[in-house]
Write a structure and sequence with these properties.
Layout: E1 4-10, E2 16-22, H1 27-33, E3 51-56, H2 70-74, E4 77-79, E5 89-92, H3 96-105
Parallel strand pairs: 1-5
Antiparallel strand pairs: 1-2, 3-4, 3-5
Length: 118
């Protein structure tokens, strides 16, 4: 049986919701199972729509992501559609634009089709 982590999601309005997420599942899938509503689009770790920032905890296992860079990890960003937890976490949600700016600053690909997602 896979280990279960406590993941807290802090929304832009300050609301915090918690969900138990298994180590063998993507964070977004576990959050949905718990009834949380979070932004997403491609669900392949490509477009940044699901971007979060880790405020507490270890970086996610992003091995399923199609486009995730060391610079993303080093800045504390996660793509929850394809990231699996490796510790208890607190995630700041709705960080698409912030992650895009980080990628722009490093000359990395940053899809533009998700500007309107909130």
């Amino acid at each position: 049986m896979a280990r279960v982590y406590r993941v807290e999601f802090e929304y832009p309005d300050g609301q915090v919701r918690c969900a138990p997420i298994r180590a063998d599942e993507h964070v977004l899938d576990g959050a949905r199972r718990a009834g949380l509503v979070l932004p997403s689009a491609c669900e392949q770790g490509w477009d940044l729509a699901c971007a979060c920032r880790i405020s507490v905890g270890e970086p996610l296992d992003q091995s399923d992501s199609r486009r995730y860079f060391a610079e993303d990890r080093d800045a504390g960003f996660a793509l929850i559609c394809t990231g699996r937890p490796r510790s208890d976490l607190r995630l700041l949600t709705h960080r698409t634009e912030e992650m895009r700016r980080n990628r722009d600053a490093h000359g990395l690909p940053a899809p533009r089709g998700t500007w309107g997602l909130r």
